[in-house]
Design a protein that fits this description.
- The complex is a heterotrimer of chains A (92), B (330) and C (284).
- Chain A is built from three helices and six strands.
- Chain A is an alpha+beta fold and 92 residues long.
- In chain A, a hairpin with a 4-residue loop joins strand 2 (11-15) and strand 3.
- Chain A starts with a strand and ends with a strand.
- In chain B, helix 3 crosses helix 4, helix 9 (203-216) runs antiparallel to helix 10 (223-237) and helix 9 (203-216) packs across helix 12.
- Chain B has 330 residues and is an alpha/beta fold.
- Chain B starts with a helix and ends with a helix.
- Chain B has one domain: Beta Polymerase, domain 2 (2-Layer Sandwich), CATH 3.30.460.40.
- Chain B contains 15 helices and seven strands.
- Chain C is of the alpha+beta class and 284 residues long.
- Chain C has two domains: 3-96, no CATH class; 101-159 and 197-282, Phosphoenolpyruvate Carboxykinase, domain 3 (Alpha-Beta Complex).
- Chain C is built from nine helices and 17 strands.
- Chain C has helices at residues 21-30, 81-96, 125-134, 165-174, 199-203, 230-239, 244-247, 249-261, 272-282, and strands spanning 3-9, 12-18, 44-50, 61-66, 76-77, 101-103, 105-110, 113-118, 138-141, 145-147, 154-155, 161-164, 184-187, 190-195, 210-219, 224-227, 264-269.
- The relative contact order of chain C is 0.14.
- The model of chain C has no long low-confidence stretch (mean pLDDT 93).
- Classes of the chains: A alpha+beta (92), B alpha/beta (330), C alpha+beta (284).
- The B-C interface holds B 22-23, 25-26, 29-30, 33-34, 51-54, 56-57, 60, 63-64, 67, 70, 294-296 and C 1, 13, 15, 17, 37-43, 45, 47, 49, 66-67, 98-99, 246-248.
Chain lengths: 92, 330, 284
């Protein structure tokens, strides 16, 4: 499974405190995100990454407590349900 | 004072609003809102020299329609994300279809729920996929549910638990209890794919559906907006193959009447041979224009007649009696 | 409709029609110093209609409707027709106004700086606004704060204020020359009277102000004060806004800019005087 983020122009970010407010232009929905969600969105690209590739990049670039594959899958599922991330089957 | 003719004239020929004065504008804007046509009016009058207040109000109406369009596109997109894995065609209907396909009928249009058409044999899978993706039933009433599933042309209403927006899933375009049976399989087979994977009805079928929705489905409340949709569709697509297709669905009478009325009120281009008044037309016309300058529905006797008629069209008399009796006892 | 009254409050023009003379006469009296809709073209139409034709005379019952309607809104008895009109105007704003971001809040201004008070029913925003107005602050409204999405300024929307029993007595003592509407007993909000804003508030209803403080007051507790973090302020203000989602991107930008530029404070207070002292200090 490959997870893809929307293009940068689709989102407006406003850091607040521990939370970041994100406005998603296509949906008109405002999301309040806490780490690692903003970091996941920043790391995923339009082309997309597999969960394991994402985990690697997050470990390298950020000092994240949630460096556990199952927890990451749960976060990704939440972002998919919110409409911020799309998923597609990996191309062979 | 009857207000609807002001709206009809303004939509038909925007130049007629020149010099209508403050009272006229007040009435026109109120009627347009009441008929769900203020976004359309805003689009039609865009660019004309207007009093400041009117320009501001119509700019708001266009902006509001634009937000509605964005929400409609998103609901369609999220429905597609949930249903694409099923591999069955998902056909958008009504207002959502018009805006997603970029049609004239979608410009400035107010959009309510997301309406989709799917093959009847897949409706169980579609229901399951939507429930798994966060939609919930709106009404838990067991009688309504049984009635819906057996007789209606759609699932009971679903609403998304996070976004709070409704989706209506149809498997045909008229209730199974209605005397007319359109060819649902043909509607799906002739549907046109869009870039994003969703589909819309073929142009003739869009017109047939709009006419069915206007006459055979409801009591004509909100009819002017539906008639304007039909006007836009006829102007955009023409009528070459329309008669044959409408006859195939058993809906030629509804389509023809809609075309006559659109021609009469909005000046829609139709063949001269179609411009033959039917004795029922004046009454329908009267019902469509039943709105006063305060935005109130007027002509109560006419309206009641159409309400009873719409239920009559949907189900046979014995069923109607049973349905109204159980509903009344609620 | 048989009876009609037109009025402009701040940037919004209303046309109000009713099947009965009494509520229209009351509106015309209480709003007599206000302007009329610009160009004679109102932004909204409100209709106070009999729920059934015979209910115009028999146990007369006022249905609240207009350009925007809530089908489930319960009708009110004719004696509360004035309240029905005010609720109908609120409904048009809440569902139909998009030229400003709307916050359910009271707003008062001093030296060009505006105080925005928001909270649940009973938090005291209307009473506090009236008390501050009696002390010489300019009253800018107590139902809706109108935030200009382009400039970030607040536009006045000073309608008549509905106050409940104890607040009525307190205000009458502080400002004996204030004008009041009739006592409306047994309304959904209890016994209420409407207070007419003073002449300076009405004459300044087109003068905007810059927001200086967002206040979340809570009545009936020992005096306390805390700074509200930005994320909490955002959540509370989106909940307090009827048109945040309708405005889309403009709403997001306007609200996040407001929160970034204006401090947010929550206060608890046991009585009006304590609140006023806290507010005077916070606004210095």
């Amino acid at each position: 499974m490959i997870y893809c983020a929307p293009p940068a122009s689709a989102l407006l970010h406003q850091p607040l405190d521990a939370f970041t407010a994100v406005f998603h232009r296509s949906s008109g929905i405002t999301h309040l995100l806490v780490p690692p969600a903003p970091q996941i969105l920043a790391t995923l690209s339009v082309e997309g990454l597999s969960r394991d590739a994402l985990l690697e990049r997050l470990r390298d670039e950020y000092d994240l407590a949630d460096a556990d594959p199952l927890a990451l899958t749960a976060r990704l599922d939440e972002l998919v349900a919110a409409g911020l991330v799309t998923q597609r089957a990996a191309r062979a | 004072m009857n207000g609807a003719p002001l709206l009809v004239d303004a939509l038909r020929d925007p130049a007629t609003v020149a010099g209508i004065g403050a009272q006229g504008w007040t009435a026109l804007l109120t009627v347009a809102r009441a008929e769900q046509l203020i976004g359309t009016l805003g689009h039609r009058l865009d660019g004309l020299a207007l009093p400041d207040r009117v320009a501001a109000i119509l700019a708001d109406a266009r902006a509001s329609a634009e937000e509605g369009r964005r929400r409609a596109l998103w609901e369609g997109e999220m429905a597609w994300r949930a249903l694409a894995p099923l591999g069955c065609p998902v056909v958008l209907l009504k207002g959502t279809a018009f805006v997603v396909a970029g049609l004239a009928a979608g410009q400035g249009r107010s959009i309510g729920d997301c309406d989709i058409l799917v093959p009847r044999e897949r409706i169980g899978d579609v229901e399951a996929a939507l429930l798994a993706a966060g939609w919930e039933w709106v009404k838990p009433d067991p009688y309504d549910d049984e009635y819906y599933r057996r007789w209606m042309h759609e699932l009971p209403p679903l609403i998304h638990r996070d976004r709070d927006r409704m989706i209506d899933v149809h498997h045909t375009i008229l209730p199974l209890t209605a005397r007319i049976r359109p060819d649902a399989a043909a509607l799906i087979e002739s549907s046109v794919p869009l870039a994003n994977g969703l589909r819309v009805l073929a142009p003739d079928d869009m017109i047939v559906h709009a006419a069915a929705h206007l006459f055979a489905d409801g009591d004509l409340a909100g009819g002017l907006r539906n008639l304007w949709d039909i006007h836009c569709l006829l102007e955009e697509f023409g009528v070459d193959s329309l008669t044959a297709r409408a006859q195939h669905h058993g809906l030629w009478s509804a389509v023809w009447r809609a075309a006559r009325l659109a021609n009469d009120l909005f000046g829609t281009t139709i063949p001269a041979s179609w411009q033959v008044w039917d004795s029922g037309d004046p009454l329908v016309r009267r019902r469509l224009l039943a709105r006063d300058d305060w935005g109130r529905p007027s002509r109560p006797v006419t309206r009641l007649g159409f309400y009873i008629r719409s239920h009559w069209l949907r189900m046979p008399p014995a069923m109607l009696a049973r349905h109204l009796w159980i509903k009344w006892r609620r | 409709m048989r009876h009609r009254f037109d009025v402009r409050v701040g940037p919004v023009g209303f046309r109000i029609g009713a099947d009965w003379r009494a509520p229209i006469a009351q509106l015309a009296d209480l709003y007599r110093d206000y302007a009329k809709p610009a160009d004679g073209i109102p932004d909204f139409t409100v209709r106070l209609t009999a729920t059934r034709p015979w209910r115009r005379w028999i146990r007369p019952s006022v249905a609240i409707t207009g350009d925007y309607t809530l089908p489930e809104a319960a009708p009110l008895p004719l004696a509360q027709g004035l309240l029905a009109a005010e609720m109908a105007m609120n409904l048009q704003m809440a569902l139909g106004w998009r030229r400003h971001l709307l916050l359910h809040a009271s707003v008062v201004e001093n030296n060009g700086r505006a105080l925005v008070m928001t909270g649940e029913s009973g938090a005291g925003k209307s009473t506090l606004a009236a008390l501050l107005a009696a002390q010489g602050w300019r009253f800018m409204g107590d139902e809706f704060a109108l935030l200009d999405p382009d400039t970030g300024a607040l536009h006045p929307f000073p309608r008549i204020t509905s106050l409940k029993n104890q607040s009525v007595a307190a205000m009458a003592a502080i400002k004996p020359d204030a004008r009041w509407g009739p006592l409306l007993a047994g309304t959904p909000k209890g016994d209420i009277r409407h207070l007419v804003p003073d002449a300076s508030a009405i004459s300044a209803m087109d003068v905007a102000a810059v927001p200086a403080l967002l206040l979340f007051p809570r009545f009936g507790f020992a005096a306390a004060e805390r700074s509200v973090p930005a994320s909490e302020a955002l959540v509370r203000l989106t909940q307090a806004s009827t048109n945040y989602t309708a405005l889309g991107e403009k709403g997001f930008v306007a609200l996040t800019r407001l929160i970034a530029s204006v401090p947010a404070v929550a206060i608890d207070y046991p009585d009006g005087d304590t609140a006023l002292a806290l507010i005077q200090r916070l606004m210095r």
